[in-house]
Specification:
Helix content: 10-25%
Strand content: 25-35%
Number of strands: 18
Structural class: alpha+beta
Number of helices: 7
Radius of gyration: 24 Å
Oligomer: single chain
Length: 396
C-alpha cells in the first residue's frame, strides 16, 4: 500500500482552559453607569467585583464579598465613601481597608480585602488584574482618544453580551483570521496585515462588502479601512474609515472583554462616531446607533460560531490563515508570571497575508451566487411573487 494510505489522521487537541486569568487592564464599562450612588456588581475573574462612586467622584472597585462572613457587597449600600455589607454593616473603603464596624469598639488590624486599581480612560472604567499582585502598569494603558472628551464625537453606544462555553482566546484569534471575514461577516478583505510588538497586537485591513449577502458587513456599497489594536489582553481600539454609498464616516469601535470563568467571558463593545460637519447632534447620534447595530450584528455572528465550535490547541493551518501560533505566543505573555515572559512573546513580528488567491475564488463564487439569485428572482416575478432585498443598516 502507498504511504498516503497509511497516513494517520491528524488529532484534534482541545486542551484545557488556563488556570489563571490574564494580567493587565480590563474594562468594566462606561464610568457614568456607576455614578448613581449605588453599588454595582460585575462578574469577573471567577467571582464578582463591587463598583461604586464615593463623595469625591472617585470610582472604587473591590472584591464583591465581605471578608467578615462572606456577605455580598453588591447588595449593600454606599454609606459616605464606603460600601456597607448588607449582612453586618461592615464598612469598606476604596483602599480595601475596613473603616468602621458600627457595633464594635475597634476594627481588626487585618481587616483588608482585595482592591482593584482603577483608571478612567476615554470615559470607561479600567481595572488592573494580576494574580501576582503587581502594581498597575500605567505605561500600557490604552491611549486617550483625541477629540472624544472634547465633544467631537457622539456619545458612546455601549452594549454588553455575556458569552458562555468559550474562552476569551477565541475572540483574540480573530486578530489574524482573514478568511472568516468573508464567511462569517460577509466581506472581502482586500488587504490584511498584522504587527505584534510588546503588549500590543494590531490588525490592518481594508475590505468591501459582499453584494450577495445582507447583514453583517454584507453590502456591495460598504467599504472599510480598519486599524485595530489590542492594548494588552482584553481591550481593543478599532479605528474605522467607513464609506457607505459615498457617505464617509470616522468610527471608533471599542471591543473589550472581562473573563468570568475558565470558559466564559463578558463581551462589551462601544461605538462613537465623529460628528460630520453640517449634521446636528441628534442625527449624528442616530448614525452612531445604526453603526453600533451593524457591528453588533457582526459580533453575534462570531458568537454563533464560538458556541458551536471546540477549542483547538493545534490548529491545522494553510498559509492564508495568518500567524495564529505567533499571535497565541504573544497572548501567552499575559498568562505567565512576569519573570517568565520571554523575548519571542514580545519581540516585533510582522506578517501580511496575500489575499490574491482568496479574492479570485470569492469573486467567482459571489458572481455565481448573484447569477443564481437573478434566475430565482426572474422565476418569482414571472409567477407574480416579489421579494424585496433587505437593506444594510446605515445612518443614511
Amino acid at each position: 500500500m502507498s504511504e498516503t494510505t497509511h497516513a494517520k489522521a491528524r488529532s484534534l487537541d482541545q486542551g484545557t482552559p488556563p488556570e489563571r486569568f490574564a494580567r493587565g487592564w480590563h474594562c468594566l464599562g462606561l464610568a457614568d453607569s456607576f455614578r448613581d450612588g449605588k453599588p454595582h456588581g460585575i462578574e469577573a475573574f471567577g467571582g464578582k467585583v463591587v463598583v461604586w462612586e464615593d463623595s469625591k467622584g472617585e470610582i472604587n472597585v473591590l472584591d464583591g464579598y465581605c471578608r467578615h462572613m462572606g456577605g455580598d457587597l453588591t447588595q449593600g449600600e454606599v454609606k459616605g465613601d464606603e460600601i456597607a455589607c448588607p449582612f453586618h454593616d461592615w464598612r469598606w473603603g476604596g483602599d480595601g481597608k475596613c473603616k468602621q464596624i458600627p457595633y464594635a469598639r475597634r476594627v481588626p488590624l487585618r481587616a483588608r480585602t482585595q482592591r482593584y486599581p482603577v483608571q478612567i480612560r476615554n470615559g470607561q472604567v479600567l481595572i488592573w488584574h494580576d494574580v501576582e499582585g503587581s502594581e498597575p502598569d500605567l505605561d500600557i494603558l490604552p491611549p486617550v482618544l483625541p477629540g472624544v472628551a472634547e465633544g467631537e464625537y457622539t456619545d458612546w453606544s455601549w452594549e454588553v453580551v455575556p458569552i458562555t462555553d468559550s474562552h476569551c482566546r477565541e475572540l483574540i484569534d480573530n486578530v489574524v483570521d482573514m478568511a472568516h471575514f468573508y464567511y462569517v461577516h460577509f466581506s472581502f478583505p482586500t488587504s490584511f496585515r498584522n504587527v505584534f510588538e510588546g503588549t500590543e497586537a494590531t490588525q490592518y485591513m481594508e475590505s468591501k462588502g459582499r453584494p450577495d449577502k445582507s447583514g453583517g458587513y454584507g453590502s456591495a456599497e460598504l467599504f472599510l479601512k480598519s486599524e485595530a489594536t489590542y492594548y494588552g489582553p482584553a481591550y481593543m481600539i478599532n479605528w474605522l474609515d467607513v464609506d457607505y454609498k459615498g457617505f464617509e464616516t470616522e468610527v471608533i469601535l471599542i471591543n473589550c472583554h472581562i473573563p468570568t470563568g475558565p470558559d466564559s467571558f463578558t463581551l462589551q463593545y462601544g461605538i462613537t462616531v465623529k460628528k460630520p460637519e453640517g449634521i446636528d447632534d441628534d442625527t449624528a447620534q442616530y448614525i452612531a446607533k445604526k453603526y453600533a447595530q451593524m457591528f453588533g450584528e457582526g459580533f453575534l455572528q462570531d458568537v454563533h460560531i464560538w458556541k458551536n465550535k471546540v477549542p483547538v490547541q493545534n490548529p491545522l493551518l494553510c498559509e492564508e490563515d495568518g500567524p495564529v501560533y505567533q499571535l497565541r505566543r504573544w497572548y501567552e505573555q499575559f498568562y505567565v508570571d512576569k519573570a517568565d515572559v520571554v523575548p519571542e512573546m514580545v519581540d516585533r513580528f510582522e506578517f501580511e497575508v496575500d489575499t490574491t488567491r482568496a479574492n479570485e475564488f470569492w469573486q467567482e463564487e459571489v458572481a455565481e451566487n448573484l447569477r443564481r439569485k437573478a434566475d430565482e428572482d426572474g422565476e418569482s416575478h414571472s409567477s407574480g411573487d416579489s421579494t424585496e432585498t433587505p437593506q444594510m443598516m446605515s445612518g443614511t
